[in-house]
């Protein structure tokens, strides 16, 4: 157990995880459970469960806890930095180069072509959240909540952060009443 | 002042970004493009595209690049700290209570309830990108690129980095 191992493990899982944080999870598991044996599979599953319950990027939450467990505060810092710094530097370098050549017609064409692809990628992500809501909330609730969100965000121009807080409050109230009602059985899975 | 704004924007968007990276993207856009006007929608799209073409977590790449663009290296570091630190600290302190979180009906309901908002935000943003592309490159190129990338990513499972790379080549040849 050393700083060097943390550094190697998280640099590797950060650089090989394509498609954002979630795709890095199996890679982090490989480093933490199989390769360096920092924790058991069960403990990893618990870290992942807590990570999923909290907001924000998942990969850095995993790095923070695992790094802390292995080598304290310094370990957490090293694990997070190893996870994010290489790709952050790569992005800044790549975009700066692209913009430095921004006057070139070819670069302009390349940038223009990326727009529809990003639109499509976002649409697919949006569809995945739609489907998750469909399965989790049921069809009627999901449609009602989608319509409310759309009207509030687009027609009333309510800030997205406020909408999220409102829906979080709704979830708390709903859970409070459904778990405290004597006639409904509390389901614990 | 600008440093404070950078820190605040990335702190609040990541605290509210339930569902990992994808759910923070429209929140970034609301702050960075619509509220503070640090980037245009087009520039935001470029950052998103290149960030998607690189490995690693998406939210940290986007926040540190935008922080850098707005307020230099210090802005970049502040944006990164605001993105990562609050939930990193929460992980370490809350791990003792992990069993409470795992079976909590509150957490389950909360995660589910935020999904419709995130879906609407992502779909609206997708629509904006497609309309902007339609207006600047015409509907034929937009349709070819949008449908082509959908087919490549979802049907034949081409690596996203290759899809972005392919669209860059297409742009260099047909849109320059």
TrEMBL record, chain A:
The keyword Membrane applies. It comes from the Bacteria. It is found in: Cell membrane. This is Chromate transporter. The chain crosses the membrane at residues 76-100, 106-127, 134-152, 158-177. Keywords: Cell membrane, Membrane, Transmembrane, Transmembrane helix. It is a multi-pass membrane protein. InterPro entries: CHR_Transporter, Chromate_transpt. It comes from Ammoniphilus resinae. Pfam families: Chromate_transp. Belongs to the chromate ion transporter (CHR) (TC 2.A.51) family.
TrEMBL record, chain B:
Coiled coil: none annotated. It holds the Pfam family Chromate_transp. It comes from the Bacteria. Its main location: membrane. It is a multi-pass membrane protein. It is found in: Cell membrane. The chain crosses the membrane at residues 77-101, 113-130, 158-175. Keywords: Cell membrane, Membrane, Transmembrane, Transmembrane helix. Belongs to the chromate ion transporter (CHR) (TC 2.A.51) family. This is Chromate transporter. It comes from Ammoniphilus resinae.
